[in-house]
Amino acid sequence: MSLPFTYKTMEQVKAENTHNDNLFGLVYRVAITENMPGEVNIIPISYPLNGLKIAANVYVPAGYEAASPRTYAAVVVAHPNGGVKEQVAGLYAQKLAGHGYIAMAMDAAYQGGSEGMPRNTDKPANRIEDIPRAADILSVFPGVDPTRLGILGICGGGGYTIKAVQTDKRFRAVATLSMFNSGVVRRNGFLDSQTDSIQERLEQASRARQQEADGGEVLYTPNMCEMPESEADKLPYDLYRDGYYYYGKTHAHPQSSFSYTVSSLLDLMSFDAADNADLINQPLLMIAGSTADTLYMTERVFSAATGTSDKELFLIKGATHIETYWKEEYVSQASEKLFQFFDSRLSAGK
Fold first, then answer.
1. 89: nearest Cα among 24, 20, 34
2. Residues facing residue 76 across a β-bridge
3. 244 and 224 in contact (C-beta within 8 Å)?
4. Predicted confidence (pLDDT) at residue 350 exceeds the cutoff of 70
5. Any idea what the Cα angle at residue 271 is, between residues 265 and 272, rounded to 5°?
6. Where does residue 190 rank: exposed (0-12), middle (13-18), buried (19+ CB within 10 A)?
7. For residue 220, what are the β-bridge partners?
8. Banded pLDDT at 86 (limits 50, 70, 90)
9. Quick check: 197 and 205 in contact, CB under 8 A?
10. CA nearest to 92, candidates 341, 350, 349
11. Domain extents for the chain?
12. Would 44 disulfide with which of 8, 50, 133, 225, CB 3.0-4.6 Å?
């Protein structure tokens, strides 16, 4: 049987990642620098989705051999809004592989290293479809036991994960980290701070879409990471202040962007991850920082997920939203909780 994905050569990988000295272009701390025998390795792949080529990194455990009869549980990792697979999604995929899972971090269609025009289109339907397609691919990856498939959605990827798993029951265990409900925030503003301008912004998005249809310039939202530090430090929310430094300074990647097509708002503003959350009947773990100003989003979805009794809200004391991406003490706590959760729900025979 031919596989529905293509392995990338190391020459292709090197050619694609020229922004730093990491072979895979990874920007997180303790990232893999090269594939070594007896260690966690990265297998870069690409695969088709609705005519687009999707870029992904598959992290495999130490001792993995494609031809071996041994099988592994596997986890899809969906990246945050503005993020790419080389940032926090890659970090947690590497952690999971270090614990014995095969984990795949992929770039959303129209974003990162994946194809799609206009660039940085951010429509919920696209990002939701990224997730079942990742299941298609990972479930046939050599060594994966398709009956032991889990998912970890981070930030915006967490919101889209909540929506995808409502209907895709191939995912036997569902986890989110610092979940972000993209549609509600794009519509109402952060902490409902922009409810008085909803219709005005919809008018702007409508005009932007018509301009695209007429062959005109594609309009984009402002890129927060391009503002001066002095302005960033005055931003009213931890999410945006911390995000400015994470995405714009300490963990910057050239394919990562907070600028999206204005026309995407037409789709985003009617999206709510909490809608139909009662359809989730899988085990559910939602992790968030106790001081994160996005915590209200996780709490709302957790309450709405009434279709499963096997659910837990785990708070990391003292952590903000972005700190769960990189701060070692918080990453360690989140990772250990994820290991416990996936180990108990994806073990053989479950």
1. 24
2. 104, 151
3. yes
4. no
5. 140
6. middle
7. 261
8. very high
9. no
10. 341
11. 6-196+267-345
12. 8
Q: Tokens 């799609």: give the residue.
A: 116
What separation in angstroms does the CA of 188 have from each of 181, 193, 195, 270, 323? 11, 6, 5, 11, 24
Which H or E run includes 207? helix 198-213
Q: DSSP 3-state assignment of 242?
A: helix
Segment (H or E) for 1: none
Count of all residues that appear for the chain in the document: 350
Beta strands in 97-142 (DSSP E): 102-106
Count of other CB atoms within 10 angstroms of residue 6: 13
CA nearest to 319, candidates 331, 302, 311: 331
Q: What percent of the chain has pLDDT over 70?
A: 99
How much is the pTM?
A: 0.97
What is residue 342's predicted lDDT score, i.e. its pLDDT? 98
Tokens of 77: 């990792």
Q: What is the mean pLDDT of residues 130-151?
A: 98
Domain 6-196+267-345 grouped into CATH 3.40.50.1820: yes
Long-range contacts of 65-69 (CB under 8 A, 24+ apart): 65/143, 66/142, 66/143, 67/142, 68/143
Assess contact for 273 and 181: CB atoms under 8 A.
yes
3-class DSSP assignment, residue 69: coil
Strand, helix or coil at 208?
helix
213: Cβ contacts below 8 Å, ≥ 6 apart? none
Here the tokens at position 318 are 């003292």
Is the distance from CB of 131 to CB of 137 less than 8 angstroms?
A: no
**Are residues 125 and 66 in contact, defined by beta-carbon separation less than 8 angstroms?**
no
The CA–CA distances, whole Å, from 346 to 65, 83, 148, 254 equal: 21, 27, 5, 35
Q: Round to whole Å and give the CA distance between 290 and 292.
A: 6
Q: Give the residue from 211, 218, 201 showing the smallest Cα distance to 265.
A: 201
**Tokens read off for 164:** 């995808």
